[in-house]
Design a protein that fits this description.
Layout lengths: L2 E8 L8 H13 L3 E6 L5 E7 L4 H9 L2 H5 L2 E8 L8
Antiparallel strand pairs: 1-3, 1-4, 2-3
Length: 90
């Protein structure tokens, strides 16, 4: 199964009002089985989430493009295919 790491970096003009719709969107992704985990960075500048069960980078990008953070232009969102290490640490 492929995983995609999404890093959301707040822009200087970040509007906190978009946080609630963003969290609701993440809840929707979780309900659909597409969200592995998510959270904000301790310094408050960024956050990340992991998409799972997504067939391609293009599909992951489409999901990210529908995130309220992206729609509002409050954050820069970068999507990367993420190769998880196996149990031996490789």
């Amino acid at each position: 199964m492929k995983h995609y790491l999404v890093i959301a970096t707040r822009r200087p003009d970040f509007d906190p009002a978009v946080v609630a719709p963003h969290l609701a969107y993440l809840d929707e992704l979780h309900a659909r089985g597409l969200l592995g985990s998510a959270g904000g960075f301790a310094d408050g500048t960024s956050g990340a989430y992991v998409l799972q069960g997504v067939a391609s980078l293009a599909e992951a990008q489409a999901i990210v493009d529908a995130d309220p953070l992206a729609l509002a232009g409050n954050s820069d969102l970068a999507v990367h295919e993420w190769k998880l290490a196996d149990r031996s640490g490789r």
